[in-house]
Amino acid sequence: DGFVVLRGLLSEEQRTRLVQRVEMLWSEEGEQAGGENYIENGARRLANLVNKGGEFRLIIAHPEVLEVVRAVIGPFVRLSMLNARDVPPHTDPRMPFHSDSDHGGKVDETGYYVCTAIWMLDDYTRLNGSTRIIPGTHRSDKLPKEALADVTATQPNEVVVEGKAGDVLVFNGHCWHTGGANATDVPRRAILAHYIRADHPQRLNQKEALSPEIQAKMNPLERQVLGLDD
After folding, report:
1. In this structure, are residues 66 and 109 in contact, taking their beta carbons and an 8 Å threshold?
2. What is the rounded (10 degree) CA torsion for 139, 144, 147, 150?
3. Over the range 165-191, which residues count as b (16 or more CB within 10 Å of their CB) and which as e?
């Protein structure tokens, strides 16, 4: 189908620390939050998280997530971006169906090259607009905007992927997906780890984005995944 939910990867202590850190960053960065990537109307964004707190290191090269990512795009992977996104209560950012390869095209001659991990900091439910995926579309060799009459409309074969806070949804980035409206009284916060095959450029060049102090703290596997020695 192109996706899997890894249950309970975050302990409650880890989840709490991550929530506290992203909320602090949203407060500090204000209207500029997410600007290193893009600012989204109706949602809160953060970008370049590897450079913004040791709390995020556990996400960079988590073994269970990396195992899935490598199964999708091969053994040589790089972290392309580490961002956060929150859909606040009673908002509908109207994200269209898209694939995370929209910026670079379809599957290339070597195969799949993007894979995404959504670390759920809150429960993901149908009511709060959890991620919707159209299973198998990573094999379509099409982008949603080429095949769907309305990329914002509900699709008959879509699946709403639900999970608990601390779960991680990992999916083939070529799979068509979107997020829905949050009709509840609580936020829907997540950290988004975008991985890319090493022969493709990172969306955010981590070697340029990370301070020397942050780079010096990384272990060999983290350095490899971040592309610091490329």
Report:
1. no
2. 150
3. bbbbbbbbbbbbbbbbbbebeebbbbb
Grade residue 94 by pLDDT with cuts at 50, 70 and 90. confident
The residue type of 205 is: N
Report how far residue 18's alpha carbon sits from residue 191's, in angstroms, rounded to the nearest whole number.
9
**196 falls in which pLDDT band (50, 70, 90)?**
very high
Query: Is it the case that residue 214 has pLDDT exceeding 80?
Result: yes
In residues, how long is the chain? 230
What digits encode the pLDDT tens for the residues 31-68? 999 999 999 999 999 999 999 999 999 999 999 999 99
Strand partners of residue 58: none
Per-residue burial over 96-130, b = 16 or more CB atoms within 10 Å of its CB, e = otherwise: ebbbbbbeeebbeeeebbbbbbbbbbbbbbeebbb
At position 199, the amino acid (one-letter code) is D
Nearest to 199 by CA among 104, 64, 118, 116: 104
d(CA 100, CA 106): 10
Q: Which of 189, 142, 173 is nearest to 80 (CA)?
A: 173
Q: Give the residue ranges of DSSP H helices in the chain.
A: 12-29, 57-60, 63-73, 144-147, 206-209, 212-216, 220-226
Domains, the chain, ranges and CATH?
A: 3-226 (2.60.120.620)
